[in-house]
Amino acid sequence: MDPIEVTAHFDHQGTITPIHFTWKGRLQRVESTGRRWDDESGQHMLVMVSSGRIYKLTYKSEEGRWYLSRSTSERQVV
Q1: Domain boundaries, the chain
Q2: Alpha carbon distance, N-terminus to C-terminus of the chain
Q3: H-helix or E-strand containing 52?
Q4: β 65-69/2-10 pair status
Q5: pLDDT truncated to tens, each residue of the chain (78 aa)?
Q6: Which positions ≥6 away from 76 have C-beta within 8 Å?
Q7: What pLDDT is stored for residue 76 in this prediction?
């Protein structure tokens, strides 16, 4: 997982909505969010950016940090 910078909205119920993130020096604007799940490694969510690519973001609340997980699967999740 790569640490990244994310701008996100945290609502009063604790729901996190990523707005955009920076990866490899490029700003990626989040167009939509998909599946979300929590486990011992953090809060995970799939997001689609304006180019149509899908990324998996992980927020580790104990660190207050975001990470991008890349996958080499056929589903093009990076």
Answers
A1: 2-69
A2: 10
A3: none
A4: antiparallel
A5: 899 999 999 999 989 999 999 988 999 999 999 999 999 999 999 999 988 999 999 999 999 999 998 643 445 555
A6: 53, 54
A7: 52
CA dist., res. 58 & res. 61, Å (int) = 9
Tell me the pTM.
Answer: 0.84
Q: b or e along 68-78 (b: 16 or more beta carbons within 10 Å of the residue's beta carbon)?
A: beeeeeeeeee
Cα angle value 67/14/52 (rounded, 5°): 45
Q: Which long-range contacts (CB under 8 A, 24 or more apart) does 75-78 make?
A: 77/46, 78/53, 78/54
Q: Give me the residue label for tokens 């080499």.
A: 72
